[in-house]
């Protein structure tokens, strides 16, 4: 196995980024962030890739940021230079939140703090039935800086978000599925195959249609209903001129499977 902190794999139209610090519960460190910074633009620009899966090796998806490294790094960053959190937010979390292709988080185990915030960047979440999910910042006197307090209440009921934030406790994958955060819960030995099957199913759809739907859906909660509808109508007008829409309509009429090109 590679000693890289983040592994990049590609299987047809599906890319996979695997957090690879199992001995440290896949905690986020600068080496991992640097690899995210390299891989995300490459995956976004590759027209052959239609879906991205983010998962982890070992018993944890991600237990959060490497606090030891962050504490050490605070004394080393020069004034005016981006620190660990700056880079994590600007080069990893924000690009994933706005990724032009569907992102699936496959939670293979413990998912805490920055790991939860990383999972929150995904469009869909598939979780192992033994995954434990929580915020945990309160347990260490640390403040969530990647969406724990600001984005989590948009994804689960407010009182559930407050419970996770204030208690530092974890909830099961099944409970988080009931609250709407997790889309599918599967046995641990089926997680990766289930995530791959979901990704391959999605990859058969029109890339340009999915990208436009994601842009509207991601912005919808920040707009009024009427503004969100206008945004959708604008993208619909653009999409009318796409090759994929014409191909989809032709395939429907001809009773065949469409061959989308993403344009």
Topology:
Elements: E1 6-11, E2 14-19, H1 30-45, E3 51-56, E4 60-62, H2 67-74, H3 84-97, E5 103-107, E6 110-112, H4 114-119, E7 124-128, E8 132-134, H5 152-155, H6 158-167, E9 170-172, H7 173-178, E10 184-186, H8 191-203, H9 207-220, H10 225-239, H11 243-254
Parallel strand pairs: 2-3, 3-5, 4-6, 5-7, 6-8, 7-10
Antiparallel strand pairs: 1-2, 8-9
Helix pairs in contact: 1-3, 9-10
EC number: 4.2.1.17
GO molecular function, one term: enoyl-CoA hydratase activity
InterPro entries: ClpP/crotonase-like_dom_sf, Enoyl-CoA_hyd/isom_CS, Enoyl-CoA_hydra/iso
Write up what this structure looks like.
Keywords: Lyase. One of its GO terms (biological process) is fatty acid beta-oxidation. Its EC number is 4.2.1.17. By secondary structure, the chain is an alpha/beta fold. It folds into two domains: 198 residues, 2-enoyl-CoA Hydratase, Chain A, domain 1 (Alpha-Beta Complex); 48 residues. The chain is built from eleven helices and ten strands. The protein has a six-stranded mixed beta sheet, with helices on both faces. Helix 1 packs parallel to helix 3. It is globular, with a radius of gyration of 19 Å. The protein starts with 5 loop residues before the first strand and ends in a 9-residue tail after the last helix. The model has no long low-confidence stretch (mean pLDDT 90).
């Amino acid at each position: 196995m590679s000693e890289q902190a983040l592994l990049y794999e590609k299987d047809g139209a599906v890319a996979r980024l695997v957090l690879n610090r199992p001995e440290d519960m896949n905690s986020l460190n600068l080496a991992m962030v640097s690899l995210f910074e390299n891989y995300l633009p490459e995956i976004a620009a590759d027209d052959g890739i239609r879906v991205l899966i983010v998962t982890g090796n070992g018993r944890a998806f991600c237990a959060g940021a490497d606090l030891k490294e962050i504490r050490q790094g605070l004394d080393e960053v020069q004034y005016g230079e981006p620190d660990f959190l700056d880079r994590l937010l600007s080069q990893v979390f924000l690009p994933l939140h706005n990724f032009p292709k569907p992102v699936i988080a496959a939670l293979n185990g413990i998912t805490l703090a920055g790991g939860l915030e990383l999972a929150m960047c995904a469009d869909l979440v598939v979780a192992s039935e033994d995954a434990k999910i929580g915020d945990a910042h309160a347990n260490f006197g640390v403040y969530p800086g990647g969406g724990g307090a600001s984005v989590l209440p948009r994804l689960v009921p407010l009182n559930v978000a407050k419970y996770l934030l204030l208690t530092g406790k974890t909830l099961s994958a099944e409970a988080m599925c009931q609250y709407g955060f997790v889309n599918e819960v599967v046995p641990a030995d089926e997680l990766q195959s289930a995530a791959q099957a979901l990704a391959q199913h999605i990859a058969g759809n029109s890339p340009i249609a999915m990208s436009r739907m994601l842009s509207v859906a991601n912005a919808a909660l920040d707009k009024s209903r009427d503004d969100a509808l206008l945004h959708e109508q604008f993208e619909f007008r653009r999409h009318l001129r796409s090759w994929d829409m014409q191909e989809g309509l032709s395939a429907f009429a001809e009773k065949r499977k469409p061959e989308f090109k993403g344009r």
